[in-house]
Each structure stands twice: as structure tokens, then as C-alpha cells.
Amino acid sequence: AGPRAPGPQAAPSRAPCKPAVFVPVDRTPQVQEARLKLPILAEEQVVMEAINENPVVIICGETGSGKTTQVPQFLYEAGYASSGGTIGITEPRRVAAVSVSQRVAKEMNLSHRVVSYQIRYEGNVTDETQIKFMTDGVLLKEIQKDFLLSKYNVIIIDEAHERSVYTDILIGLLSRIVPLRQKKGLPLKLIIMSATLRVEDFTDNARLFSVKPPVVQVDARQFPVTVHFNKKTPLDDYSGECFRKVCKIHRMLPAGGILVFLTGQVEVHSLCRRLRKAFPYQKKSTAGGEDDKEDSVEEIRKFKKSRKRRKVLTLPKIDLNNYSVVPVDEGDEDRDIDSDDDAATGSDLDLDLGDGDSGEDEKSDLSLPLYVLPLYSLLAPEKQAKVFRAPPPGTRLCVVATNVAETSLTIPGIKYVVDCGRAKRRFYDRITGVSSFRVTWISQASADQRAGRAGRTEPGHCYRLYSSAVFMDFEKFSAPEITRRPVEDLILQMKSLNIEKVINFPFPTPPPTEALAAAEELLIALGALKEPPMTGRLKQQLAAKLSCPISALGRVMATFPVAPRYAKMLALSRQHECLPYTITIVSAMTVRELFEELDRPAGSEEEAAQLKGRRARFLQMQKVWAGQGPMQKLGDLMVMLVNSVCADAGLYVDPKMKPPTEAQVTYLRQIVLAGLGDHVARRVQAEELLDDKWKNAYKTALLEDPVFIHPSSVLFKELPEFVVYQEIVETTKLYMKGVSAVEPEWIPALLPPYCHFGKPLEEPSPSYCPGTGRVRCHRPSVFYRVGWQLPAVEV
Ligand code: ADP
Ligand code: MG
């Protein structure tokens, strides 16, 4: 079919419905040859016709069929970036955005100035950028600044099957932006790419697209994969089972790469070490380092217990109405759920290969070294890139990966897949905010994706370390993330886009109404939304609550690329020159890499020493936010944090900042309290001890059960009466993490939305304040959920 005329609404100036120009690309013969093998190349015409003729197109195709790397090139060649507009591609994972942009630049023989990427804290985008890979969070921030996304001609939402929250939100927003651009005569193309066929949430959803978008199906040349189920399903030592299976494959089966799916970074490293030991290839030992002892926290100063008398708050305190706008360019949430830490697996070097359930009996080849590579989201890009290169001659490639290898990245030459059947997922308690990482069974769709990795280049085998009965019990598809997590940051972003009635938003899958209500409530309590007038009947009130407009503070908060609680801390921090310190604290609390980095097993002694130093500095920082002492030199860690967050905020902060003054430390603790208001806990007093399980326990406003200060906290032994915590994690007990001591006087002063205030005290209220000429009266408060009597405050 020949090219059709552009739609009648196309404006002549820019972004025609179908560009007329063909933009040649100068590829090397090798690249051209490799491309021709990709299934999507055979469908180029079908893909481009669908795109030319429809505002929204869905492309489905097996992982490795060439969607991510080739579709942007098709569009580029068809002239979609030739009229000054950009082709934008969003990825849910940073690792994919970076790696694919590099790959595409190389394939097209274009510089990174033209094919660029942008992720939360870095990027190489220039004025010349025509193809831009970015995380979905980055695009969301851009929509906030320019709702029509006028600099783009095409937006590709990649990996839509992952159903990350941002993907869902973007698709909802784009379903509105596309018709608006159409009306303006500057049509925007929306392409949704998915690895699975389950796209009904997008296609058969009248809230989303009034015209059902066409689905282009790319048939991958998939070679048959023989699936072998285990007879038994190992309940805990699946990592050991992976080890035995890899050993067996390597010893007995013909050449071909092995890909192992585990759940987290620590497991990946541990299996890599075992395999390298069993089949040495690298001379350099990579063992050791991980059992570095925790740095001791002995010299903790005694916590000042000034619990003598409750008196009216006279301490200097932060001003809740003093917040200021800090410009922020972009940002995205860190959602690398696959890479979170877990406990190291057992290390017994069990080489018993007795059970022969795979039924293979080919000749053994003991001479071949195994070339073992780890792969997970937070691995340095240079190390990630190794998996795409051919293994050294005479070795067999073995990649030990988290589920990042499931659909985001395709590793060449894989013939054997070993699938532990599990993945790590974050679970949230919607009411209390308690979050935990749990290893759970994957879905059937994921298991099939994993198996598919074995059949890219020739017939392959997939070893599932679980029985077929267990597989039949897997859910068919994982539930979209939006139905599983707290949505307050999204609600805030949406409100700042003036989407007030969040309940009417065209979500591909709407979150539960109670999650929306909980988010709205938290945002009201933080002061980010304007509270509705408390009138009308209950039902009307609820409806009103779900459509509260954003406040001035909320707008400031929405500019920060962090969750609302931390955004509030940052927004309050321009006073008393606290910002650099708050940035440090917030970074430490929210930048997951920091903890990853600190907990990572070291690869060498030198690295171990470096990590030890960093841990020590980190502990010092922890003390600051626990109110334990001045910040000392934080060295390179600090520089890194200051550079990232402050640079984003367009601020200059001297990395060699002075330690905060005593007063600043107090303000900082108040700022932390202001952001984590509902996370206050009070130590159970001796006279209240019900039984032994309440020893050293705290009572929170949200939970019935006793909670404890986590042993890693500098306050573990101090046990201050009131604390505020960042989160509760459930291991053997409920532990508070990110704990900071607070003075009871601060609570009514800084958290009025959470308090019930009593009548003014007789003495000395009301009284005349000679300094300001104002009448002051003092009111005591009750933290209403738990009935804590709190000291009086000035009003
Ligand atoms: P899809 O998006 O459909 O899963 P991709 O476009 O990601 O497919 O991959 C197409 C091919 O490009 C695969 O064979 C993959 O191995 C290769 N590829 C992708 N990224 C890289 C890279 N960074 N280096 C080398 N090859 C790569
Ligand atoms: Mg892809």
C-alpha cells in the first residue's frame, strides 16, 4: 500500500500526520545484517502504515523481536524527527533507557547528541537530540511543564505489559493529550509497545480511547523451547538448586549460553561466586568482602533525657508557612524493585549432582571454563554491557540475572534458562504504609517470558525449579502495580496537573477507591491539598475529599522528584539554611542505590575498604537525623548526593559544607517530623507494660502491635520517649527504620492536623505578650488516634 494523504487536520508547519521526507541512515554492513534477522524488520511496512494512519497504535511482540531498538529507527527514517520534533521513548527501567540509547546510537551511526537518554539524575540530551530514551517518570515531569508535550512528534511507551504505575498514568494522560494535539493541528503519535498479548486494558477501554487502536502483532521467529519441570519444588534453597542445575547443564549439555533467573542482587552475587569457584575462569578471586562486619556504633552519646516537666513550647521551631519554590528540571521515581537487597543465601558448596530429573545424558565436557556474569538493574552500565558481547573463546557464557533479563534486555546466545520461579516484589500496607520486600511466585506470563529467552537463536531448554502443579497455581498475569501500592505521589503529580477529580481519571486499571482516599487524606494532612469544608452528608464529604485542589505548598512539593513526605521536608528547608542538610537526609532516605551500594558485597579488598569507609560516613549521617551529633566530613558520598539532588534543583551547595549548628540540628529533626507526621511512636512506659512482648516496645498511632527500633539505628539502645520513623519493616518483629528522636512539645506545634486540642489552660492563659503585642493562649493537645497527652502550645 502506498502512502496516504495526511489527515485533513494536519497543519503544514510541523509534525504532519505522515511526514514526506525519508531520512537516510548510514549503518555498517554488520549492523544491517544483524537487523535483518530481527522479526520486526519484516513488519516494518505494516508497522509504519498503522502508525501513519492512526493516532494510537499498539505493537505486540516477543522480547528480542526488535521493538525497542528498531521502531524508533523506523520512525526516524520515515521523517518523524525531521521537522524539529523529537521521538520520545519511555522505559520503566533506567538500565534499559541507558543501554538501548547507546545501542541505537551505535546502530544508526549517530552521536549521543542525537540519540540520547535522560534518567532521573543524568542524561546526555542536547538541542540536537532527535531520539530520546527516558524513564517514564521523566516524561511525567515534562507533562507537568508542557501538557501538550509540544516538542515531541511521537511518544512510544515501551514495556507497557509491565504495567508500572507511571506507564499507566502516562497512557491515561496521553489518551487526553493526543486528541488535544489533533485539535491544535499538531498531531502527536502514540505507540504502546508490549511483550505480551494481554492489551485489552488499553484497547477495550472506552474511558481511554474512543476509537479502538489497532494492534500490530510481530511474530517472533521463536525456536522451540523444551520446558523441564522439577518433580519437587524446593521451598527455600532455590539458589542452591540453581547452582546444582547450572553445574549439571555445564558438565553434560552441548555448547550454548545459560541464563539463570534469581530474585535479587545479593543472591545473584552469591551464585556468581559459587559458580566461579566451581568452574574457575577469572584468576582474580571475587570472594570475600560481603561478610564485612557492621561498623560499630559504640561512641553514641547519651541521649539527653529532659523529660522533667511538660512546659509550654518555647523552643525555636520551624515555620510551617515558610516554604519556597525550588526549580526542578525532571525526575523519576526509583522503581527497581528487582534489585532490592535480601539475606545472603546458604553457602554450602554442595556439588552433589545426584538427581537426574532433567533426563539429559549427553557427554560431559569438564574442560570448558564458565564465563559467569551478573546482571541486575543497579549494576554499573559498563558491567551490564558485558552480557551483550561474545564470551571469551573457549568459554561458556552464564548470566545470573534478576528479572531485568525477563523482557527489558535480550542477551544473545542463550540456549538454557534456569528459572527459580520467583521474583522480589514490594508489598505495601495501604493503611499503615508498612512496606516489605517479599520473594513471591511469578506469574505464568513471566514464567513463559523467561522460558522464551532460551529460544532466540536455536532450540533451547528451560529448567523450571518447581513442579508443573505449582506452575498451574501461578496467577496468569501479575496485577498492575497501581492496584498494589500507595498512590499519594501520583495523586500529587496529578493534582499539580490540575486533575482534581482523580477518581474520574482514565486509568487503564483504576486503583481501589480506598487507596485514592488514603492518598488524598495523607496529602491533606501534609498540607499539600486544601481541606474541603466539612459540610454535607458523609457520602458527599468523601466525594469532596477525592477532589481537593492542590495548595500552594502542594505545588512546591510537586516540583521535587521525591515522595510527598520528603518533598515537604525539602519545601520547608529554605529556612535557617537547612536545605543542604535536608537534601542529604532525604537523599539517604529515598535514594535506594545508596543502601544498595552500602550493602553490596565487595569484589576486592580495595573495594571492601572503600565500602567500609562509606559505611562509617553513612553512620555519621544517620546520627544527624537521629539528633545525635553534628555532621562531620561526609566525603565523596556527600558530594555525590549534593551534586545529584541540588544540581537537579538548580542550586549550588558547597560540598564541603560546615557541620550544622546545634540549632540547625534541632530544626532538621523538626523538619523530618513535619514530613513524617503520622509516623510518630511513643515508648511504652513501665506502668503500661502489658506483657513481655511489649518490653522496649513502642506504640504507634497506626498499629495495634508493638514496634521496635531497628538494631541498625543509632537510637537502638537510647530508646527516647517519642520518635518518628521513616517506615516499618516486618522481619521477625515489626521494626521502625529511619528513626529520629522528637521532643513531645514539637508534635502539637508541627502537626496540628493530627492533634486534638484541648481548652486553653487557665494559667497563664490568656496572657499578653509584650514583645509582639499579641495575646497568647496555651492549649494542650491529644494525639487523637492514641490518646497521648501532649504538652501545651502557643496559639
Ligand atoms: P525487544 O524490544 O522486542 O525486546 P530489542 O530491540 O530490545 O527487542 O532487541 C533486539 C536485539 O538487539 C536483540 O537481539 C538484542 O540482543 C539486541 N540488543 C539490544 N540491546 C543491545 C545492546 N546494548 N548491545 C548489543 N545488542 C543489543
Ligand atoms: Mg524491548
From TrEMBL:
Residues 48-215 form the Helicase ATP-binding domain. The keyword Zinc does not apply. The keyword 4Fe-4S does not apply. Keywords: ATP-binding, Helicase, Hydrolase, Nucleotide-binding. Residues 319-498 form the Helicase C-terminal domain. Residues 7-16 have a biased composition (Low complexity). Residues 327-364 are annotated as: Disordered. Residues 329-363 have a biased composition (Acidic residues). One of its GO terms (molecular function) is hydrolase activity. One of its GO terms (cellular component) is nucleolus. One of its GO terms (biological process) is maturation of SSU-rRNA from tricistronic rRNA transcript (SSU-rRNA, 5.8S rRNA, LSU-rRNA). It comes from the Eukaryota. This is DHX37 helicase. It comes from Hirundo rustica rustica.
